[in-house]
Amino acid sequence: MLFNSYGFIFAFLPVTLLGFFLLGKSGREPAALWLVGASLFFYGYWNRAYLPLLIGSISFNYFFGFRIARADSGKLKKLLLTVSICINLGLLIYYKYANFFLSGINDISGTSFSLGEIILPLGISFFTFTQIAFLVDTAKGRVKEYNFVHYALFVTYFPHLIAGPVLHHKEMMPQFSNESARRFDYGNIAAGLFIFCIGLFKKTVLADGVAYYVGPVFDAAANGNSPGLLDAWIGALCYAFQLYFDFSGYSDMAIGLSRLFGITLPLNFDSPYKSANIIEFWRRWHMTLSRFLRDYLYIPLGGNRKGKARRYVNLLATMLLGGMWHGAGWTFLIWGGLHGLYLSINHAWHALRRTLGQDPGKPASPPMHVLSVLLTFLAVTVAWVFFRSKNLEAALVMIKAMSGMAGAGGFSRGAVNWLWILLLVVWFAPNTQQIMGHFNPALDFREDSAAKFAWQPNWRWLTAHVALALFGLISISKVSEFIYFQF
User: Fold this and answer.
1) pTM for the complete prediction?
2) Distance CA 58, CA 327 (A)
3) How many whole angstroms from its chain centre is CA 363?
4) DSSP-assigned beta bridge partners for residue 285
5) What radius of gyration, in Å, describes the C-alpha atoms of the chain?
6) Measured between alpha carbons, how far is residue 234 from residues 187, 254, 357 in Å?
7) Mind listing the pLDDT tens digit for each residue in 456-465?
8) Which distant-in-sequence residues (6+ apart) come within 8 Å of 372 by Cβ?
9) Which residues are tagged catalytic?
């Protein structure tokens, strides 16, 4: 089931909200059970065959978490943690990477091993990473509650189940326990609906609108037909904005939906194309995944504690694995490798400036800031070409065309008009959390509201709300999955 579907908006969501608030009057357990059941229905609506996999994963990780918490020795605790993480990763590797690895073996050895078609379970990366974080936090003594129903709600909670954010047990359990969350609150409903409608507009109007100009360019490259310089750049830029508004839209919709239930999710998207360098970009793009990779991969690898050379190796390894997390293919591996290289160069540049007595954290002059934002955006756009391309050959065709080696070619005026509009929105408009800054839109969000555009419960904002909702709803013309559903 999709957030951007009439069935979800006009049937599933109202029924789920009504049941939650009615049962919430009877206590925490009935409300939690209702949300678990609704979330399993939400997941099973896509493919019931994978419901047992999700339920089995929840049961397995709850059991191991319980055992880790009660292990009477550090050695046993470490053993249980290692076994449970390996099994989680083994399941993820089978569904996402088994055929990719077999294909590589077949290419090298000339064999023809095959496991047949493996359909990727929706959201497996997200619920696997969420539960690995739970296991690690349990081993470190950070988890204080082991109620199965509450744990099942933590994993299956439908606003985040399919495409994030990646949650920490400690930031959600206190909220699920809070009695005020089970009470109908007009403030939460108004704020949640407005945030949801912003996200719906981003997805159905902006992301799906510019997507029209993406497919033909990348499809031509996949078929071996090189686009011209202008077409290639316009196609790449359109995809950069399609992905931006698609993921930003999902993140807003998830936060808005959760707010309806009185639950505040962590921020997952914070105007990343305004970043002046790649380090800042990864603090703003898919923020909870970046947090996970930092806390559970980069730091355990040694982080920056073992010298400069090791730091760069750790950065590259972390981003390569981050690329592989997104999908099984050389394109994702190269995309991750490029960002690992970008980050290493960025950190090396900061280190060089420090040796010259300069402060990398000092704000740059306005012209230098604009140049830095533009350079960062272009570097990210080039990397997105590998992220979007069907295979490595198609990506190289696109890169060759973008370098001018295939001639200038023509361009679509409609695409250029879209790009100007989206550039203005991305670089100059306040983002959702700035608009909603006075209403605590996300966990750990520091208020940075744009005073002229701060949301208030008045007629002016009601008009804007209705307009966003109408445009978003009218634009639901066909089933359009979120791009991050495939990960």
Assistant:
1) 0.92
2) 23
3) 28
4) 269
5) 23
6) 42, 30, 41
7) 878 888 898 8
8) 276, 277, 364
9) 326
